Amino acid sequence: MAGPGNMYSALEDAFARSGSATALCRPGSERGVTYTGLAEGAARYANALAGLGLAPGDRVTVQVEKSLDNLLLYLGVLKQGAVYQPLNTAYTAAELDYFVGDAKPALVVGRPEDTASLAAIASRHAARFTSLGLKGDGDLPRLAAGASAEHATVERQSDDMAALLYTSGTTGRSKGAMITHGNLESNARTLCEAWRITAADRLIHALPIFHVHGLFVAANTVFLAGGSLIWLDRFDAEKVLELLPEATMLMGVPTFYTRLLALERLNREACASMRLFTSGSAPLLAETHEAFETRTGQRILERYGMTETGMITSNPYDGERIAGTVGYALPGISVRIADAEGREVERGEIGTIEVKGPNVFKGYWQMPEKTAAEFRADGYFITGDLATMAEDGRVTIVGRAKDLIISGGFNVYPKEIEVELDLIEGIGESAVIGVPHPDFGEGVVAVATANGSAPDEAAVIAALGERLAKFKVPKRVFFVKDLPRNTMGKVQKAELRKAYENIFS
């Protein structure tokens, strides 16, 4: 039986300890938000949500821009015992309709300018709608501003769901990963210890907060430690470079580092106050790792995780950070490299990463068969990522068994794009692949056959842009006579990747 464990209770204790210390500041703003202010804001949002009828366990679907109010909403949802479901702001109305229909939330929170479309979607699925804008405008911030700053945190068990995060599916249907309070707290505490995060740290927060990296890895850890966030609405290389002397940490995706390296002013002096640069959400090229060290004297710490698990492995804080590897299993987490039957392979051999620990999610929302298929009988979760493990336990990822593309830190599953491509007039069959891209890590590329004359590439890309989030839309579309296939008729995507691997270089 799981014990008491609302993640917000752990944060609330940290807020009380830190009191008047700065929790968050915006560059150029004279006043930051103290931990006392953060706690009061979270309480006001929790009371506002309770006033809207939100009960413990209810889902809250959120598609809004990154802002302090967005962060307070997340904290308020946890405090009220509800379930936070963040969505990428790039998702289209068609995509949002699926997420709302599947999650069955009690409340949908969207941007004021999207009220007409999102209110209609919410109503169609028997959910309530309210708005929250970038500058504190919208109905929900107004409700929160008038609510009490006193709120008793709702008790939850550690295995109760705290967040519902959707990951794209290889079959085209997105899956909702049920993240528990215990998952969030265990991973945040583990990372604070592993990366030596303390109240003295100042983290440049330039990540989105609609996924694990920006919300759980960055914000949760810093708040638990009592440090402060230097809050940016988005990543801007020039701005980040300007802020480095004021900070001690930066958490980013590979794109952050390639864009920083493009600035001549990036040097050792600019990074003199920094103690930690981390990279995740996508593979970091070894040449980027080495170029960054040459320019700054800092070795980027690469780690590995998933939506379903939070962080799994990390290069060591003290010790050798080897470019191209993701380090060792974090404390309390068990990692093995296994064959198709779940048997551990010999060290150095390629197999699938399987993981077990308090960080691993409780399953996929309303998909018991899919959940059962992804877990071994002994409780290990099958990640689908291919890797090797050295004799000392260091993990190196070599591929992705689930055909995942990671572009700019976002997960892209080819099947979802292929389904949309095949609906476009003039396209016969399609295959979507990821190939090396100097800025995004991988660029999404579509290869298709034509029924008669090939459609115009720009027109195809424009059509997809109306149905898919921008990061999923192929950067290039190529037409071929036939797609390469094996004897079983399966498209040979490895051949396509090889054929188009240099188009962005």
Topology overview:
Elements: H1 7-18, E1 22-25, E2 33-34, H2 35-51, E3 59-63, H3 68-79, E4 83-86, H4 93-103, E5 107-110, H5 115-124, E6 128-131, H6 139-145, E7 161-167, E8 175-180, H7 181-194, E9 202-205, H8 212-225, E10 228-231, H9 237-243, E11 249-252, H10 254-261, E12 276-279, H11 286-296, E13 301-306, E14 310-314, E15 328-329, E16 334-338, E17 351-356, H12 368-374, E18 381-389, E19 395-400, E20 405-407, E21 410-412, H13 414-421, E22 427-437, E23 441-450, H14 457-465, E24 476-479, H15 493-499
Helix pairs in contact: 1-2, 1-8, 2-3, 2-6, 4-5, 7-8, 10-11
Word description of this protein:
By secondary structure, the protein is of the alpha/beta class. It folds into three domains: 7-203, ANL, N-terminal domain (Rossmann fold, 3-Layer(aba) Sandwich); 235-400, Rossmann fold, CATH 3.40.50; 405-499, GMP Synthetase, Chain A, domain 3, CATH 3.30.300. It is built from 15 helices and 24 strands. It has helices at residues 7-18, 35-51, 68-79, 93-103, 115-124, 139-145, 181-194, 212-225, 237-243, 254-261, 286-296, 368-374, 414-421, 457-465, 493-499; strands at 22-25, 33-34, 59-63, 83-86, 107-110, 128-131, 161-167, 175-180, 202-205, 228-231, 249-252, 276-279, 301-306, 310-314, 328-329, 334-338, 351-356, 381-389, 395-400, 405-407, 410-412, 427-437, 441-450, 476-479. It has a nine-stranded mixed sheet with strand order 2-1-10-9-11-12-13-14-15, sandwiched between helices. Helix 2 packs across helix 6 (139-145), helix 7 packs across helix 8 (212-225) and helix 10 crosses helix 11 (286-296). The termini are far apart. The model has no long low-confidence stretch (mean pLDDT 93).
